[in-house]
Amino acid sequence: MLQIDKIKAFVELGKFLEQFSENSNSKNEGVLYNNLYYDAFTDLIALSQSHNGWYTKEQVYFAIQSWAEALTDVNLTNWLAAYDLNQINPKTVGLILAGNIPLVGFHDFLSVLISGHQVVIKTSSNDQHLLPFLANYLIAVEPDLKNKITFIDGKLENFDAVIATGSNNTARYFEYYFKDKPSIIRKSRNSVAVLNGQETTAQLIALGDDIFRYFGLGCRNVSKLFVPKGYDFTKFFEAIFEYQDVIHYEKYANNYDYNKAVFLMSNFKLLDNGFLTIKEDSSHASPISSVFYEYYENLEEVENRLLADQDHIQCIVSNDLVKNSIPFGTTQKPALWDYADGIDTLNFLTSI
Predict the structure, then answer these.
(1) Residue 47, Cβ neighbours under 10 Å: how many?
(2) pLDDT tens digit string along 287-333?
(3) How far apart are CA 53 and CA 70, in angstroms?
């Protein structure tokens, strides 16, 4: 199977996904195999929340559109140009996927197939339907992929390398169980924002998307703010008021009520706007419906802290205040070459 054929298959998948958006689905008669897959995918999106209560239509559509934008011929070609995939000795790569946000494991799935390996996938019980559907569409476009994609329900066996994603606790199990295999083991991470009080309202609204997208369940969601001494949170709260409707979602509201009660019973000092609590805390990992904050004296102090904690941080958001930060509102829009945990997945796959 030629590289150009694999790229073409994923480009066709991107065109298929482009038809589905929150505002309105728009069927494109030029998309391959729409007669077989368009209505079925529409139905699957409608059922997603029944499969996972956090997978609202809004969140599923956002994930779909993100991948539609990524899977273009230009993006795929530019991404792969940095690698020599012609000398790949095909292996079987096992994937153990998370299920915290829709299609969270798609990049690993794409990376294994595009590099020429076979993939054996154990999906999370929280996300068992979307990826298998898209895999079937890919096989319809490029039948040679059928022998390269396997989904399993039980124990992962008969593989040469593995990419496994889980919590810090499950990572310890993965590290032991897969100690004799080439592996990427992904642990829990969080994202942070660094503010200086000069942010515009538009930037703070965009920061709200970094916080609330996927209800804050992703490792790319901002869960911690670094702010200067004396920072006034008024402008921040005014900007994120745009996201107030999140409290009308029952699962989020239950977390808000519970976590707020726990904080108050522990006599923690909180700032609260009715749908988000913020609490001064040195940890990066805040619970759903809460964001932690920490004061700083100078930006050098923040940079040293972020460097020391780099193994626990996925993204840093700021208005160019610190090194390696990205703009507000972009955490959930990674490019194909923005690798999770800073580990180059394709480099790993070319070396096994």
Answers:
(1) 11
(2) 999 999 999 999 999 999 999 999 999 999 999 999 999 999 999 99
(3) 26
**Which DSSP string corresponds to 302-342?**
HHHHHHHTGGGEEEEEESS-STT-B-TT-TT---TT--GGG
Tell me how far apart the 2 most distant CA atoms of the chain are, in Å: 62
Cβ pair 229, 297 in contact under 8 A = yes
Residues 189, 222 contacting (CB under 8 angstroms)? no
pTM over 0.85? The answer is yes
- On the question of pLDDT at 1 being above 90, the answer is no
| Alpha carbon distance 113, 108 (integer Å) | 9
> Is 57:45 a contact under the CB 8 Å cutoff?
yes
In 71-208 the beta strands, taken as DSSP E runs, fall at: 92-96, 118-122, 149-151, 161-165, 183-186, 190-194
CA pair distance 268, 87, nearest whole angstrom: 58
Q: In the numeric block, which tokens belong to residue 344?
A: 């180059």
Segment (H or E) for 270: strand 270-272
φ/ψ region of 86 (left if φ > 0, alpha if ψ in -120 to 50, else beta) reads alpha
Q: Helix, strand, or coil here: 9?
A: helix
Residue 195 is encoded by which pair of tokens?
């503010």
Instruction: Say if residue 304 is exposed, middle or buried (CB neighbours under 10 Å; 0-12, 13-18, 19+).
Output: exposed
Give me the count of residues in the chain.
352
